[in-house]
Amino acid sequence: MIMELVATADAPAQARAAVNASLRGDPRADAALLATSEVVTNALLHGRLSREDVIELRLSDDGDRLRVEVLNRAAIGFSLDEATALHDGAAVENSSVGGWGLDIVGAVSSRWGVQRDGGRTLVWFEV
């Protein structure tokens, strides 16, 4: 599945609906829905996207692993090292209200990562 989402506040809900429809009855659906919501929200919050920008959501399943990719055209945001540090809890205080998204993605996925190429940022995870 490939879906384009307009970079608005509705994008996380639209992404969840698309993943939910694709994974109905799949035991990995809850983890995929939660991580998808976090990654799309991060693209909106940290990607400095405008309402004219598009976030691309990709879902692939080879039977053993489900991979979700969220691509935006912003080359700004966290580097992989910064994202990993956040995931490891190094940059988030226990009392922080926000900043837990990548911890959640790491907790519900078997692997995840960030790739940057030519002005685009791809965040992916596998469950």
From TrEMBL:
One Pfam family named in its UniProt record: HATPase_c_2
Domain of life per record: Bacteria
Alphabetical UniProt keywords: ATP-binding, Kinase, Nucleotide-binding, Serine/threonine-protein kinase, Transferase
Tagged with keyword Magnesium: no
Bilayer-crossing regions: none
Gene3D superfamilies tied to this protein: Histidine kinase-like ATPase, C-terminal domain
Recorded GO MF terms: ATP binding
InterPro entries for the chain: Anti-sigma-factor_SerPK (IPR050267), HATPase_C_sf (IPR036890), HATPase_dom (IPR003594)
Name of this chain's protein: ATP-binding protein
Residue ranges of domain Histidine kinase/HSP90-like ATPase in the record: 14-125
Keyword Transferase attributed: yes
